[in-house]
Protein: Transcriptional regulator, TetR family
Organism: Bacteroides luti
Amino acid sequence: MPQLTTLLNKCVIMKEKEDVNTEQAIMEAAEKEFLDKGYTLTKTTEIARIAGVNHAMLHYYFRTKDNLFEKVFQKKVALLANSFMPKVEEKMPFIEKVEYIVKAHFDFLASNPKLPFFVLNEFLTNKERLDRFSTIAGPAIRILLEKLNSEMEEAIKKKEICVVDPVHLLLDIVSLNVFAFLAHPIIERVAGSFGKEYYSLLAEKRIENVEIILRRLRP
């Protein structure tokens, strides 16, 4: 009996690993298709083909294209939040914390350069997507704003920074960083491929965006 129990446990572990690998493959294929083609033009049959599974298997794990899209989007929101939220909770000078947030956000976009254009397009063409984004990302954004507001008030009292609305600060960070990636495909289409020069440009833009935000804060 102990041998049978051990064998059954091994079978369960192998099945769990197989499930994780299959689900991961589907998620990765879905992310690529959604970012390349947008939600409307993405076909679950093509996602299944790229993932190396049949369509019934995809349906077993995610049921619908909408569920799969939401899972992919939740994953991206979680990755973004995890890139800077732990640092937000640390005790450190406010200026340094903001610098870290700007860099972390920029680096996240550099790792997901198609995401800003995709998100903007989905929001403009489907109001329900914006509602879902509010549901998924809203709690993390509210926590961030509350934390920033609390620490900003303290930094203002100490005259470490000038008076700035935390919402405006967040908008400045997002707009500066996102536009660098939104503008890229447009400029590339007009001026041709950047090649390696583009990545040098991004590195410079990252430094510049940090400095713009910090100048906004310094008294």
Observations:
- The first helix runs from residue 2 to 41.
